[in-house]
Amino acid sequence: MRKPIIAGNWKMHKTMEEALDFSDKVKGLVPSNGQVETVICAPFLFLDRLVRGVDGYHIKIGAQTMHYEEKGAYTGEISPAALKGIGVSYVILGHSERREWYNETDEAVNKKVLSAFQFGLTPIVCVGESLEQRNKGETNRHVESQVSKALQGLTEEQAKQVVIAYEPIWAIGTGKSSTAEGAEEVCSQIRQTVKNQFSKDAADSVRIQYGGSVKPENIREFMDCPNIDGALVGGASLKPDSFLSLLEATVHE
Ligand SMILES: O=C(CO)COP(=O)(O)O
């Protein structure tokens, strides 16, 4: 059985004060019976305080990107070793906003995925097509290529632990989510890609999230799909009430 994983991606929102206020409000209220894995992916600056603040409260903390090198002359960057050192558990890699604005190529994403495992971080690898690609019927080919390039060189054990987030670019921040059927179709194809690249075991274990305008009102539709194991949530993860409602909806069928 794959454990559902709900991850909030705060993107470039909140001040330190707001971040700590959020974690104080939710930490005693997230489901604690192991039915769902809860992750908050926050800006770098807040990670250390958040890790310490939620210790013992069934919430894991993730970063939103990282460099692939352990250290070096990369002004402004953050290393996997530094993240691991403060107790960060997850790292989002290859988010479409990073691919678009910060030149995060498939090759760089692959290096980061390998490096994340080397330093004991679990990658959440984002893939997804643009509206133009969708309209041209290129969704499956594009997503398959992103997945296979990102996971290249992983061991089967590592492939089992990866989290893949299918986020169609046209559904991010638009209020226009994919239909559950549409998301399920692509997520099922992602699982098939992992099977072809690694094994049936790896495909059965890998967790696949849907992301793109997920809200408390629609999350259940996605969670009911056999190949969707959770959600990566932007806007609806920013308010404590809304974040808690997402978790509630996930654990109550
Ligand atoms: O990009 C996303 C999460 O990584 C999705 O953002 P929204 O939930 O705001 O559409």
UniProtKB/TrEMBL annotation:
<keyword id="KW-0413">Isomerase</keyword>
<feature type="binding site">
    <location>
        <position position="213"/>
    </location>
    <ligand>
        <name>substrate</name>
    </ligand>
</feature>
<comment type="function">
    <text>Involved in the gluconeogenesis. Catalyzes stereospecifically the conversion of dihydroxyacetone phosphate (DHAP) to D-glyceraldehyde-3-phosphate (G3P).</text>
</comment>
<comment type="similarity">
    <text>Belongs to the triosephosphate isomerase family.</text>
</comment>
<keyword id="KW-0963">Cytoplasm</keyword>
<feature type="binding site">
    <location>
        <position position="173"/>
    </location>
    <ligand>
        <name>substrate</name>
    </ligand>
</feature>
<feature type="binding site">
    <location>
        <begin position="9"/>
        <end position="11"/>
    </location>
    <ligand>
        <name>substrate</name>
    </ligand>
</feature>
<comment type="pathway">
    <text>Carbohydrate biosynthesis; gluconeogenesis.</text>
</comment>
<dbReference type="InterPro" id="IPR020861">
    <property type="entry name" value="Triosephosphate_isomerase_AS"/>
</dbReference>
<keyword id="KW-0324">Glycolysis</keyword>
<comment type="pathway">
    <text>Carbohydrate degradation; glycolysis; D-glyceraldehyde 3-phosphate from glycerone phosphate: step 1/1.</text>
</comment>
<comment type="subunit">
    <text>Homodimer.</text>
</comment>
<feature type="binding site">
    <location>
        <begin position="234"/>
        <end position="235"/>
    </location>
    <ligand>
        <name>substrate</name>
    </ligand>
</feature>
<dbReference type="InterPro" id="IPR000652">
    <property type="entry name" value="Triosephosphate_isomerase"/>
</dbReference>
<dbReference type="Pfam" id="PF00121">
    <property type="entry name" value="TIM"/>
</dbReference>
<dbReference type="GO" id="GO:0004807">
    <property type="term" value="F:triose-phosphate isomerase activity"/>
</dbReference>
<dbReference type="InterPro" id="IPR013785">
    <property type="entry name" value="Aldolase_TIM"/>
</dbReference>
<keyword id="KW-0312">Gluconeogenesis</keyword>
<feature type="active site" description="Electrophile">
    <location>
        <position position="95"/>
    </location>
</feature>
<protein>
    <recommendedName>
        <fullName>Triosephosphate isomerase</fullName>
        <ecNumber>5.3.1.1</ecNumber>
    </recommendedName>
</protein>
<keyword id="KW-0597">Phosphoprotein</keyword>
<dbReference type="InterPro" id="IPR035990">
    <property type="entry name" value="TIM_sf"/>
</dbReference>
<feature type="active site" description="Proton acceptor">
    <location>
        <position position="167"/>
    </location>
</feature>
<dbReference type="InterPro" id="IPR022896">
    <property type="entry name" value="TrioseP_Isoase_bac/euk"/>
</dbReference>
<feature type="modified residue" description="Phosphoserine">
    <location>
        <position position="213"/>
    </location>
</feature>
